[in-house]
Amino acid sequence: MRINLNADLGESFGAYRIGHDALLLQVVTSANLACGFHGGDPLVMTQTVELARGAGVSIGAHPGFPDLQGFGRRVMHLSPPELRGILLYQIGALDGIARATGSRVTHVKPHGALNNLACEQAELANILAQAVKDYGRDLILLAPARSRLAEAGERLGLPVALEVFSDRAYTDAGQLLPRSHPQALLPDSGACVAQVLRMLEAQAIVSIHGRRLPTPFQSICVHGDHAQAAETAGQIRQALEARGCRLVALPELFA
Amino acid sequence: MRINLNADLGESFGAYRIGHDALLLQVVTSANLACGFHGGDPLVMTQTVELARGAGVSIGAHPGFPDLQGFGRRVMHLSPPELRGILLYQIGALDGIARATGSRVTHVKPHGALNNLACEQAELANILAQAVKDYGRDLILLAPARSRLAEAGERLGLPVALEVFSDRAYTDAGQLLPRSHPQALLPDSGACVAQVLRMLEAQAIVSIHGRRLPTPFQSICVHGDHAQAAETAGQIRQALEARGCRLVALPELFA
Amino acid sequence: MRINLNADLGESFGAYRIGHDALLLQVVTSANLACGFHGGDPLVMTQTVELARGAGVSIGAHPGFPDLQGFGRRVMHLSPPELRGILLYQIGALDGIARATGSRVTHVKPHGALNNLACEQAELANILAQAVKDYGRDLILLAPARSRLAEAGERLGLPVALEVFSDRAYTDAGQLLPRSHPQALLPDSGACVAQVLRMLEAQAIVSIHGRRLPTPFQSICVHGDHAQAAETAGQIRQALEARGCRLVALPELFA
Amino acid sequence: MRINLNADLGESFGAYRIGHDALLLQVVTSANLACGFHGGDPLVMTQTVELARGAGVSIGAHPGFPDLQGFGRRVMHLSPPELRGILLYQIGALDGIARATGSRVTHVKPHGALNNLACEQAELANILAQAVKDYGRDLILLAPARSRLAEAGERLGLPVALEVFSDRAYTDAGQLLPRSHPQALLPDSGACVAQVLRMLEAQAIVSIHGRRLPTPFQSICVHGDHAQAAETAGQIRQALEARGCRLVALPELFA
């Protein structure tokens, strides 16, 4: 069984360092790279693309709201043409940098508040999926399982990889507990590994109260900004491999 | 004889309107589009790409320093990797937007202080030309005639279109009089037409003192931010056509 | 009878010019100056403060969301401490510039989406009013009549000047028709003058359907971004003076 | 003997954390706070002002170039009015936040490339000193000993506190070795303490080659961005106190 392990990387900005990119790139098989709006800058993007290439990790655009101060986590009300514009701009910017290093963007995963809204609002989800499709290079949409975003991508005929989260608790409705909730983040690596295995076995999202929401999924997300992110990711990878999973980059899932 | 007429467009930002894009797009044959750093935003870029496509005008990236407040006209000291990063980022961003509307970026022309520096400094010129080459899609470099930038592009084997300016006065050394100089801008449309014809006949840059600096050139630049920009461009176009020139988009020059 | 006439000014940014500041400063008696977040930059602010001082027009801070691209008209979800921070920052920045030219900020009027939200949401209104109070220099709060913002200011004991709009249509509930509505903006100067006189006579907001919502008011707002803004403002001023009103700066209302 | 110990603080931005503010505030007696252009944001500024107030540490504005991506370390060419504008804007913004928490800005120290230029260029130094003077609240100028900036402040009659650096090596001309130089930063806490004591005893800047450049000084700067910054600062403080120095906030030096 093939499965993908993804993380958000390249979110540093100028003198500001965030995340554990070098360590995580040794573990994950796909990386979602910030594109300069909520994090990342052209130099950080260049360096991360090169690191990912060296590590054999496929890269995707991780576009967010134009809000560096809020790290893309604050809701902004943009019009549909504005939304479409910021998506194509960010995907293209990263792809431009990737192209020049002999690499390419192969997937897209929205960031933060933009992703959250696209999981819940069909109209926004559709704008995102359409923009990915119009970019036109068989880009894979990496979307949360059971989300409006995944639905929109499938409806438009995009290759859609469904992801579940290793380190975030789910509500009984299958949504992430908001970051403001005290139990939003799982407490340690052990809990993350356990959640992944539980979902893998059940082929379902398993909520904080144990409720099962059946869904296929092809990718597991580990967040890069935790102190223990790389260690947790490594343990998840080991656990998956111990159960016979082969970890692959996203393009391999659709090859 | 085929010749190109280019202008800087798409430099509006959000609620701020600048330039006379719709009028100029009826006259020029190639447009240099701001890419969000010194001007332009994703929505403006989208709209301008669509307008250009409708008008049959080829588009190029017009990357500048990351300095919206200074409109890219203030010198910034960036390291070579930073410079390379901002170029690829901006070219890619515009190309991403273009791609989604069925268009493509076919040339690159740096903006403002970045362009001025690249005309004078061989090292910077080389970084720019190399970034254009590494983007890797047979992009044309649109560079001032007799500039370091043009030299760098030719040395790297890029298709280079040499341009002269219709509305700016030249020094005896063949450089533009800086904008701070009272005679930097030619006074009216008539003076611009006369300068273009003088240079065309001489196959040379003709300085403010009448000095001739021989050079081939394939493109004539009209600046989009003057009040009379569109009218001037129209008169230049008429004068060129009256002398038997055929105005073509940049890619046609290299077809 | 004393009345104030205010307009939003200083909203240009870098090379981008917007509004008709010089003309409007000859007509209005108080100016709300953008503070660099949705418009304005340190140089524009300096120049506008000096122009206002020369014209004898009192100045206020016009703080907005940190969203230049959206001109502060896009809703952003900020936390209470973030909101408080951006208010104090912007008020202080303008006051710093004013201080150095021998002037001072004497009132505050929020801009765009921030103002709209503060008119409707008591919690946000309270954060704004508290920030103005904590700045601590007897700042006047300029707030729409019958708004939550005005209520919050009065509850906190601030000097509050109530304003009505000369050029925007009101709903029967006393709110502005949103800009997206085709009748949001009154069609011409005559309609604006008529609306002002109607409200003055009725001592009420008069809705688009003629409904009267009684309220005192001390200030009339003319928007600076219309093409005819200065002419309209001039006609309003003449009509007010013809009815015996004396136009005064905001501090005079509370002297 | 009274002496001041200062550090650059409040340089975090949004989700990006930098420096060791809480630890350093227990050791230094004055803090230079970023004002949102090269680092810092309104919320970070608010929090740092409150921390400083709680620790009894006086605060100063630490204005920089408008270049978050370059952390204010990249040279930008601004016109004199632009420079004046960004200084007053930043000083006022921080003072606005300070005022609302019952505190005040009592000194100014430019940041990064802006400071470096002002140390060498008399014209720029004069613009900075004049802006500080025009802000008009007896602001202290904190300037490197033997710099053009210090000279400009003294010529204008400002209270000037001269500083030397504990953790940076000096050239024989009395300037800081640029950060790009391998020996620019002293290797460890011991070297920093030794340099401070050497300069204190000599009442001179002591260069990397041991050359003495006599100068009075009233403040010692410790940089906040080193991993060992707080520990180093603590050791310097102990060493100073062991030699009978009393560490005071900047305003006490001029009381």
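qc> Chain D touches chain A through 13 residues (CB under 8 Å).
qc> done
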